[in-house]
């Protein structure tokens, strides 16, 4: 029985609305001001982005300026550079397919029925292998393409997926070491985690790109891309380890004691009893961390990679499109936004679902 | 008694539990003061005493949820020392039931019961499930096997916890205040199960304040205070003519209301 | 499974595992160091910190105190660190103020304001900071050339930067004046919050705090007057002179683009934290306050805000540390923050390891001291006998 289904409901709701919008002089002012700002933004976007905009691949600076709105022609002409960077033009279907693979992997891992270590590991490892084969080529008749030529959206997604796939096991390891019953191990791991967390990600990426080669034996140096990926994963792991630790702290002590009393070994206790519960508790924070990791893939431009953002920069840095920076950034922003907004909505949905479950207990 | 092959180290003719001169410290706090206790196979011992007297600490030493500082604990002749192997062995033969049930909330009742037999005893799933259903019937909740612990009442959860411990087919069962977290109307259903187990000859060490239960099934009642065993007697004697003043005071408080 | 029994003993395990862990880590560090040394030796590079006293030979494009190419590395590093702290403080302050506004809009009852707050947060929080920074920077560079500068309120803005009118005093004077103002403000906050003054009449407390702020401001004024060269005019206004701007103070596009990006992005996060804080205040407390007859202003300032602030602080600490670290993005647009100075120094001097060490030490110092100060504040205001709310 909601209020609105009662006879007096209609007017009560009206009254409440009137109070919220116009209850006091301050409320009136706030309402008017906010409405004006929202209306202005809305109108601006409509006017600039649609009404006076220029669409189609044949637009030029003159026609765009003459119309006075956005110049979407830059996207129509340059979208393949933005999305795929300098990947060989005829092979770009592979890039597109690789993006689809990653999309499927992410979608699959959002399904609750996939949530077991085995299944998630299978999906992610399989996805990565397919992605890598498609992008790198050299087998199955695919032309080999060097990592240095990777770019755009697939590179962004690759960094993201690799960060997760390396970072998550690393995070679990760090979290377990930090809660070790041996004080020296726990304390030293704590220092390592805290140190990594207080350094800027950029400085870690930079160190991995520039400094690490000095410190590694020749056979371990590898591609710069993989070193940087390792840095990103390490940073992710330090944050995620603390999130998992938060999950550990939410589990009653009796759980592990009961497992011990049943004679389960350390590994069985950890992987059957403690970690599954910790992950469940830490799920919202984990998704949030993935969202942040996705946004932080864009930092890799600073150490010289052509991911989505950098590819976008090159798309308008040529003379003829120099004026159209806003359009390119809006296009890239839309891609990031779709992904990040979707993932964080999904996280909020999961959290709500879990809270409902808790109340029933 | 069971289809499960026992490891050969256990000597079933030795006393079930033999504690000699056990001491335990928490930092500087002396929690257990030279405890001596022998429990023979099939015996039922009830431990009582005021809060903080060390009852939980003592029985948790038996399966090494707490490490002791000095003294010896033997379970069926196997000494619990620094050796991790002997700890694993003893935990296999000693089941425990907790005050807070400690069921695994992310597993169904059946999974709770089959997990340890499959992982520790390495028996097949089918066999483990058959055993689990047998014990769930014994604690009178076979119909709840597919539910999650969060969907059961406290009394039902504690009975599942007992079934879970039984599924390992232990020689000894330890109970740490199994009914203290339960509403009064659920206490009886758990105690009934415990009485049945006692009558079937299970070796039991039970920390409880349920004096009716002690009278009914205990072979011996042990009274602890300030980390020491003060008094140790068969129930008639313990309740009839307690020797120490502290026991009398405690009994008057427990039985008084 | 049954090896020698000492292998399975607890004591043995405790010692070997811990010793093995530490030894493994040390070995890793040692191996890395040795490899690095041989690699450096083959490239003919020497290690050591002597270079700190050599002059850099390159220019720093932004610093609070003057720098020249003849200045030594240590001075550049110090200036870079100051730039980071300056940008960080500015970003933190801006993000906090704007974030409070957004958070209040989001937790208020007015649906129009709530919608606006939500739009703000969803846009700024869901796009990478560096993308936003690039956007602001591209926009700053796309402004008209100096001769077509846009003027507003005595200030000018064009593609070369933002030109503000200013007082004609040296940077040392400004530093002293700012310090004086901060000391006054700090004193006031101390008087208002320290436990030792809890028993003082609130009105007296407020009066003393006001006095402290005033004294700080007067001190600042005195410094400005004393530091002013009588030969100069008092104020300088930017004006177009031929093809460029004369007078005023120029703020580079790199600087304000980064400041805007950090402020707006940080505000979205702070806004969410503020909203969470207000949400955590139980309705019962507010109803109790209303039942006591407190005005809605008093309910807000004496009950709701203090309780919400306590809930926010642990999460805010993490966010602040994050924002300080975000100033390193300056390198993407060319603002000389600490990280960019380090990166350029490595390029020019080749002393890679020393500079990376300084970089790490610098950020550890900044973040640990920031976290330490804020954690202390957190402990000081924590409600006694309550579980501290866990941080994110
Ligand atoms: N982990 C611990 N650290 C420090 N002191 C402890 C710890 N566990 C128990 N103690 C102390 O040891 C003493 C005995 O505790 P124990 O839990 O064995 O008492 P108990 O007899 O089971 O009491 P209760 O009836 O309340 O369960 C108590 O004084 C308790 O404060
Ligand atoms: Mg107890």
TrEMBL record, chain A:
InterPro entries: AA_ABC_transptr_permease_3TM, ArtM/GltK/GlnP/TcyL/YhdX-like, MetI-like, MetI-like_sf. The chain crosses the membrane at residues 21-46, 93-111, 123-143, 155-177, 198-219, 225-244, 290-311, 323-344. It comes from the Bacteria. Its main location: membrane. It is a multi-pass membrane protein. It is found in: Cell inner membrane; Cell membrane. Residues 153-342 form the ABC transmembrane type-1 domain. GO terms for cellular component: ATP-binding cassette (ABC) transporter complex. Keywords: Cell membrane, Membrane, Transmembrane, Transmembrane helix, Transport. One of its GO terms (molecular function) is transmembrane transporter activity. One of its GO terms (biological process) is amino acid transport. SUPFAM superfamilies: MetI-like. PANTHER family: INNER MEMBRANE AMINO-ACID ABC TRANSPORTER PERMEASE PROTEIN YHDY, MEMBRANE COMPONENT OF AMINO ACID ABC TRANSPORTER. Belongs to the binding-protein-dependent transport system permease family. HisMQ subfamily. This is ABC transporter permease. It comes from Gemmobacter lanyuensis.
Automatic annotation (TrEMBL), chain C:
It holds the Pfam family BPD_transp_1. GO terms for biological process: amino acid transport. Keywords: Amino-acid transport, Cell membrane, Membrane, Transmembrane, Transmembrane helix, Transport. It comes from the Bacteria. Residues 81-374 form the ABC transmembrane type-1 domain. The keyword Membrane applies. It is found in: Cell inner membrane; Cell membrane. It is a multi-pass membrane protein. InterPro entries: AA_ABC_transptr_permease_3TM (IPR010065), ArtM/GltK/GlnP/TcyL/YhdX-like (IPR043429), MetI-like (IPR000515), MetI-like_sf (IPR035906). GO terms for molecular function: transmembrane transporter activity. One of its GO terms (cellular component) is ATP-binding cassette (ABC) transporter complex. The chain crosses the membrane at residues 73-102, 123-143, 163-192, 208-228, 255-274, 320-343, 355-374. The keyword Cell cycle does not apply. Its main location: membrane. Belongs to the binding-protein-dependent transport system permease family. HisMQ subfamily. PANTHER family: AMINO-ACID ABC TRANSPORTER PERMEASE PROTEIN YHDX-RELATED, MEMBRANE COMPONENT OF AMINO ACID ABC TRANSPORTER. This is ABC transporter permease. It comes from Gemmobacter lanyuensis. The lineage of its organism: Bacteria, Pseudomonadati, Pseudomonadota, Alphaproteobacteria, Rhodobacterales.
């Amino acid at each position: 029985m909601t209020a609105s289904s009662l006879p007096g409901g209609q007017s009560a709701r009206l009254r409440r609305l009137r109070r919220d919008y116009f209850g006091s002089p301050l409320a009136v002012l706030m309402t008017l001001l906010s409405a004006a700002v929202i209306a202005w933004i809305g109108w601006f976007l409509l006017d600039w982005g649609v009404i006076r905009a220029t669409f189609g691949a044949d637009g030029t600076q003159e026609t765009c300026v003459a119309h006075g709105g956005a110049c979407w022609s830059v996207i129509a002409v340059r979208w393949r550079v933005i999305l795929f960077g300098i990947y060989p033009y005829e092979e770009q279907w592979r890039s597109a397919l690789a993006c689809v693979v990653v999309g499927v992997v992410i979608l699959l891992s959002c399904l609750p029925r996939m949530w077991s270590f085995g299944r998630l590991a299978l999906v992610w490892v399989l996805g990565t292998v397919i992605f890598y084969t498609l992008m790198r080529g050299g087998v199955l008749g695919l032309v080999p393409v060097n990592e240095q030529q990777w770019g755009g959206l697939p590179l962004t997604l690759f960094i993201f997926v690799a960060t997760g796939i390396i970072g998550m096991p690393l995070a679990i390891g760090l979290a377990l070491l930090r809660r070790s019953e041996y004080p020296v191990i726990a304390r030293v791991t704590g220092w390592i985690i805290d140190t990594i967390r207080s350094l800027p990600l950029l400085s870690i990426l930079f160190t991995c790109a520039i400094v690490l080669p000095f410190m590694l034996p020749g056979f371990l140096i590898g591609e710069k891309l993989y070193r940087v990926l390792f840095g990103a994963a390490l940073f992710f792991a330090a944050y995620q380890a603390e999130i998992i630790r938060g999950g550990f702290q939410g589990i009653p002590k009796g759980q592990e004691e009961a497992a011990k009393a049943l004679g389960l070994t350390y590994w069985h206790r950890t992987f059957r009893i403690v970690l599954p519960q910790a992950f469940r508790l830490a799920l919202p924070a984990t998704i949030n961390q993935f969202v942040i990791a996705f946004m932080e893939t864009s930092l890799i431009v600073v150490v010289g990679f052509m991911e989505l953002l950098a590819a976008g920069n090159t798309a308008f840095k040529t003379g003829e499109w120099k004026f159209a920076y806003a359009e390119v950034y809006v296009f890239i922003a839309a891609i990031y936004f779709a992904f990040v907004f979707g993932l964080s909505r999904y996280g909020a949905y999961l959290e709500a679902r879990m809270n409902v479950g808790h109340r029933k207990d | 008694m069971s289809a499960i092959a026992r490891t050969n180290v256990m000597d079933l003719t030795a006393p079930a539990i033999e504690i000699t001169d056990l001491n335990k410290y928490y930092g500087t706090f002396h929690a257990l003061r030279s405890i001596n206790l022998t429990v023979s196979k099939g015996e039922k011992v009830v431990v009582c005493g005021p809060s903080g007297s060390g009852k939980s600490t003592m029985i948790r030493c038996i399966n090494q949820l707490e490490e002791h500082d000095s003294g010896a604990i033997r379970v069926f002749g196997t000494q619990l020392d620094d050796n991790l192997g002997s700890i694993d062995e003893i935990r296999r033969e000693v089941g425990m039931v907790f005050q807070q049930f400690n069921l695994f909330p992310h597993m169904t009742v059946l999974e709770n019961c089959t997990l340890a037999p499959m992982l520790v005893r390495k028996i097949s799933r089918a066999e483990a499930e058959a055993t689990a259903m047998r014990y769930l019937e014994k604690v009178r909740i076979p119909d709840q096997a597919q539910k999650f612990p969060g969907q059961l009442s406290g009394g039902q959860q504690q009975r599942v916890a007992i079934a879970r411990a039984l599924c390992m087919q232990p020689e000894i069962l330890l109970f740490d205040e199994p009914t203290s977290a339960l509403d009064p109307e659920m206490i009886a259903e758990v105690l009934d199960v415990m009485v049945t187990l006692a009558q079937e000859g299970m070796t039991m060490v039970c920390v409880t304040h349920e004096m009716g239960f002690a009278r009914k099934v205990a072979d011996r009642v042990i009274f602890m205070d300030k980390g020491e065993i003060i008094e140790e007697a068969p129930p008639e004697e313990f309740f009839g003519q307690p020797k120490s003043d502290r026991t009398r005071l405690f009994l008057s408080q427990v039985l008084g209301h | 499974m049954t090896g020698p029994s000492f292998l399975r003993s607890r004591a043995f395990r405790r010692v070997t595992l811990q010793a093995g862990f530490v030894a493994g880590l040390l070995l890793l560090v040692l191996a890395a160091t040795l490899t690095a040394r041989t690699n450096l030796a083959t490239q003919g590079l020497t290690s050591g910190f002597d270079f700190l006293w050599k002059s850099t030979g390159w220019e720093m494009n932004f610093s609070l105190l003057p720098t020249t190419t003849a200045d030594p590395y240590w001075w550049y590093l110090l200036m870079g660190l100051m730039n980071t702290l300056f940008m960080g403080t500015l970003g933190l302050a801006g993000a906090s103020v704007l974030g409070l506004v957004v958070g209040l809009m989001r937790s208020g009852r007015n649906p129009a304001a709530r919608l606006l707050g939500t739009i703000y947060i969803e846009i700024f929080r869901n796009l990478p900071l560096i993308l936003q920074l690039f956007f602001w920077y591209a926009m700053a560079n796309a402004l008209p050339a100096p001769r077509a500068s846009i003027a507003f309120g005595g200030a000018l803005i064009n593609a070369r930067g933002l030109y503000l009118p200013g007082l004609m005093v040296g940077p040392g004077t400004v530093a002293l004046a700012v310090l004086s103002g901060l000391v006054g403000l700090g004193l006031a906050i101390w008087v208002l919050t320290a436990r030792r003054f809890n028993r003082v009449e609130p009105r007296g407390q407020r009066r003393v705090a006001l006095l402290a702020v005033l004294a700080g401001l007067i001190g600042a004024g005195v410094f400005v007057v004393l530091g002013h060269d009588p030969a100069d005019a008092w104020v300088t206004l930017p004006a177009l002179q031929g093809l460029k701007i004369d007078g005023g103070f120029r703020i580079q596009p790199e600087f304000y683009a980064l400041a805007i990006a950090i402020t707006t992005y940080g505000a979205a996060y702070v806004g969410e934290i503020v909203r969470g804080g207000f949400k955590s205040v139980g309705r019962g407390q507010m109803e109790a306050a209303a039942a006591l007859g407190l005005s809605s202003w008093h309910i807000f300032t004496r009950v709701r805000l203090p309780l919400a602030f306590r809930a926010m602080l642990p999460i805010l600490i993490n966010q602040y540390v994050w924002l300080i670290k975000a100033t390193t993005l300056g390198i993407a647009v060319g603002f000389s923050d600490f990280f960019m100075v380090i990166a350029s120094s490595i390029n020019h001097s080749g002393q890679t390891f020393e500079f990376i060490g300084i970089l790490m030490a610098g950020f550890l110092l900044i973040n640990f001291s920031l976290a330490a100060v804020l954690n202390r504040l957190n402990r000081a205001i924590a409600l006694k006998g309550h579980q501290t709310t866990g941080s994110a």
